[in-house]
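Problem 3 from the worked examples.
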Amino acid sequence: MADRPICITCGVAVDLDRFDRDDCVICTDDRQYVGYDGQQWTTLTELRAGHTNAVREEAPGLWGVGTEPAFAIGQRALIVPGEGGNLLWDCISLVDGPTVDRVNQFGGLAAIAISHPHYYSSMVEWSEAFGGIPIYLHGDDEKWIRASGNTRTWDGDTAEILPGRTLLNPRVHFAGGTVVHWAGTDGRGALCTGDIVQVVADHRWVSFMYSYPNLIPEHPDTVRRTVKLLSPYEFETIYGAWWGRVVPADAKRAVTRSARRYLEHLGLTL
């Protein structure tokens, strides 16, 4: 496989035979940005020379994978267990032999699902490192796919891609913005949300943004949609995009009260 250019700002790898490398189209979109020093690229080979991945428990029974020192947006991925094999939720740019060996100690991976295009990263390289496993992306974000691989788009509001792992599409941040519902480590239900439902500094609350770096709020109708879409699902915990960004308890009510607070600050109601 060619050593694809990887955008230093967002961490997404690009097929050179399909897209030019003048500008990263994900970063020129108004949800993201090109750094003050202009467009810059690296490669997986260069990343492996200066970075490693930490694989550790985010919670007992839920393992995460994150790059050190932090690269690009700095998210960590999660290995969501269940019948039919592990799901890699969200993705990171660095994949290497030691990481693959460590993940294989937990049973490897059966599939990948990603919340939104900022985290597409080296998804094809991750897929091929585990035998070409499918990568599930919402069809409404298909235009942002920058690398060819075993990507499978899905449509609509929900899709169970592995037993007990159901993708939900609140449409926050991107039209295809996705979260995954599963049983959680204690059987009481959990959401992994990336930054679609963003766990904020006060871990009793979440928020909803169209753009985080450019501070553009999400549309009120989308916030209402999120509450309605999640209402049939029970979940006690939310795992956000970064290490330690967790709503540890009462998470379903946290989404509702956070949406209400958000809307009240706009002079609206839930």
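Problem 4, a separate protein:
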Amino acid sequence: MSDASVTTGKLLLVEYERLKEEQKTRIGFRDNLIYATLASMAGVVAATLTPRGHSGLLLLLPPVCVVLGWTYLVNDEKVSALGRYLRLTLAPRLAELAGAPGEEVFGWEIAHRSDPERRLRKVSQLVVDLGTFCLPAVSALVVFWVDGPGRGDLTVVSVMELLLVLALGVQIVRYADLAQGR
């Protein structure tokens, strides 16, 4: 193996380490967004249920869910994109440098996607994501429409919020990585 190949291999391994670190950081941030969403929901619901609470406060919940849900989705997609890059670009380059094209490098990057229970887990995660970021927002809107003050301006706002929540739900479903293997 030439010095250039060794140097390139070392650089690619450093790239792998940095990308795995970024992936780990994004996973932690993404997962904490669920707790932030739950805390935000609790705050909005608590404010609404106070003796002087106002059902119009429920209109705060959809934007909170959309902003945190979108941030969650973007980070989740970046975690998946990092994994795809490691599996489909970096691993083959390292295998080629090692003189073993077609051999598995970073086998875990592929193995954990080949688990027979992966699809069930990913569908379950999809249900949890929709239940965390979309269902509470839609529920808040339904409660507002049933018990709200009936003001036209707030109704217009609530319909716009519904459209945002539905758009988020479509994106969550669209980006659900249900595939197995590579």
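Solution to problem 4. The longest helix spans residues 3-49. The chain has one domain: 3-175.
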